[in-house]
Each structure stands twice: as C-alpha cells, then as structure tokens.
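Report of the visiting student (M.T.), summer placement. My assignment was to run the structure pipeline on a short list of targets and document each run. The first record concerns Trigger factor.
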Amino acid sequence: MQVTELLAEGLKREYRVVLPAAELDAKANERLNEMKDKVRLNGFRPGKVPVAHLKRMYGKSVLAEVIDQAVNEANGQIVEEHGFKLALQPKIELPQDEGAVNEVLEGKADLSYTVGLEVLPSIELGDFKSIELDKPVLAVTDAEVDEMVNRIAEGNRPYSAKEGAAENGDRVTVAFVGTIDGEKFEGGSGEDIPVVIGSNTFIPGFEEQLVGIKADETRTVNVTFPENYQAANLAGKAASFEVTAKTIEAPGEVKLDDEFAKTLGMDSLDALKEQVKSRIAQEHNAQSRAKVKRKLLDVLDTMHQFDVPPTLAEQEFEGIWGSVTSEMEQQKRTFEDEGTTQEAARADYETIAKRRVRLGLVLAEIGEKNDIQVSDDEVTRAVVERARQFPGQEQQVWEFYRKNAQALASLRAPIFEEKVVDFLLELAKVKEVPVTREELYAEDEADKAEAGKDEAEKA
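After the run finished, the structure tokens were exported:
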C-alpha cells in the first residue's frame, strides 16, 4: 500500500492511496480457496472445484468484496498511524471511469483512490477548579404557596347555570370565529370554549366585552393582539371575533379546608400546601440550575477556544437555519421584521452553531477523560419517562426507542450532558446568591438566544 498526503489544512486531511493489484489478487485468491471447500457446483465433487473455475464465475464479485475490505483497512491504518480521532466517516472517492474500474476488477490495474478525513481537534482542558460561579437561589415564601393554592381553588370552583346577562366572575361558554382584515386566520376559531370574565386569560379586552351577553346571543368583539404575543404573525394586529354565548354560569363558593384538599386526593389542607411548596421549590431549583449552567457553559466556551470541524459546524448550522427560516415562512415574517438582515442572521446562527459544536466536543472530552458514562438503566428510565408522556401509547413509544438507535441516542445525550455539568459544578467554586423572583425568572439576552436556539433544534 502506498499513501501520499495531498492536503493537511486545519482539521482536514486528504490522502491518495494505491493498493497494488497483486495484493488484491492474492487476497481474492485466498478468499476463493476458502470458498472451494464450501461451494457446491454440478459436475464437481465437494471440495474439488478448481480455483480457476471459481475465479471465472465469481472472480469479479469476490474481488469487489476484497477491495471494499482493503479500503476500510487502509483507511483504518492511516487513522491509527496518525493518531486521528475522526469527526465524520471518511469520504472516499473511487475511480469513476468505467474502463478503469473494469481493469481493477479484472486484476489488471492497481486501485488508486482518495480519502478525505475531517479530524477532531486536540483539546487541552482548562482548570475547572478555578471556575467561580454565582448561583441564584430563591426560598419559597408562604405568600407564594397561598397564591398557588388560591389558583388551584379557583380552577376547581363550581359553577351553576344562571338566567340573565353575564357579569364579572361568571363563566361563559362561547363559540367564536376571528378575522383580521376580513380574513379568517389559523387558531382564530373555537367551539365550546369556557371564558371566566375577569380571569385575564384571554386577549386583553376580550373578556370585558362579554359583560352583559346572554345565552344564544351573538356579538362582535374587537381586540388587538399584544405586541409580544407568542404567535409573531398575530402580534400587534387588530382582530374581530364573532362570539356566540352558549351558556352562562355563576361561580359557587370554594372553602379552603381539609375537605377541599381531600377532593384533590390530599389528606389535609396542610398536605396540599406542602405539595404545592415542593412543586414551587422544584421550579425555582430548575430555573436556578438553568442559569448557573448557562454561566458555566459561557465559561467553558471562553476557556476552550479552538477551530471546530467545518462539516460538523455546517451540519449544525443547516439544522438551525432550516428550522428558523421554516418558522418564519409559516409566520409570514422576514428578517427585516426582526430588525436584522438575512446576512446578519446567518452570521449570528453560524456563531451559535460553532459554539454548540465546540461545547459538545469539550463536554465529550471531559466525560471521556473522567470516565463519565450513562448506564443502560438510566437510558431505560428515560424511555419509560418519555412513554408516560403518551398515555395509551406507551408500548408503541417503547418499541420505537427499542428499534431506533438514533432516537435512543437522543435520550442518552442530555443525560450525559447533565452528568458532566454536575461533575464540573462539584469542582467549581459555586456561591449561592439570594435573589428575588423577578431576578430569578428574568430573561436576559443570553437566555433569549439560547431559547431561540433550543427551539430551532427541537424543530
């Protein structure tokens, strides 16, 4: 085998490999000799088929198998001799000329091909014990618990039919059809939708215009979607709804006591409050971890600056960009609507893609160097948890992950990432800093960018 380096640029390598015809022929003959004792052909006793006859019949197909194996072995030898860690599978370019291919398959010419490699960079890990992080923490207050319990009570308040016009606090079940500039829009229609007047759960101004409506009455409700409305294609737009009231119901009394708690499956009101407190604490802790993790990733990115494999970065970018542009097309928005240009947005998302690849490589290197692994039991628990999210379809979900290695890897990856983050937080100097609820749940620019990137990745 002859190997000639053609390219060594950054993380890209390219080699020309020549496999002599004599070596390939010898391996093919060896394979044919093995076949001789196994092949059954009419006119020949078992084990007595001449190799020359086998070569006439199966020579090309056997040589093709030999070539495939020889190419893989040659590529593996190049990788091993240079100590490469590959970012992607080798890109092999075999001869395309039919005449040249036939000469190789007939054993008349050497096989010459090129192989392109994209290798992982050598990563020198930083001193994680030198990392200093502030972790925002927020204790659960009695006021928070009482507010949540009151919301639960409000959501379980009984209603009974009433005669006459709807008043503030009444529940009106409605059907509606919305239009913008006379045209219906997606998500603008509904049937049998309960609206509690004064709950502020609908578009500002919608509930107030239902005051005085009676059963079977139809009226027009005019509203304007908020500027920060979640559906960007509706944000800030004026809409008109034709609303028909089907039923009017008056609210009943809810008494916060042990009996009420028992209707929710709790032993007592105190037990309900304890569960609510625990749930709020979990939300605070999750938000706190998300923020300290974001700071940790920022520090890791700063500590480890290196070139990333171009193709990995390109693949990451294409995934994000495709999702972003698809979503914008669905919402009929342009980059100008977002206060930017397509060129500037591409540059931003290319930076995000490179950061994601870089951090992924760093986390993988940390995990490998410190023997951080995800057990099969942990993956199984993740599959079970995912199956529980689809009541009635648990078996189908289980079978999907059992048969789909890529889907299973998508569950393993975040578990691995969280374990590496836990490992790093143990080494880092983490200082707990008490904050207000507003501070803990404030969304800074980095959070917004990360949220947008995550949404793109989900899509």
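The longest helix spans residues 269-303. The chain has three domains: 2-118, 158-253, 260-458. I thank the supervising group for their guidance throughout the placement.
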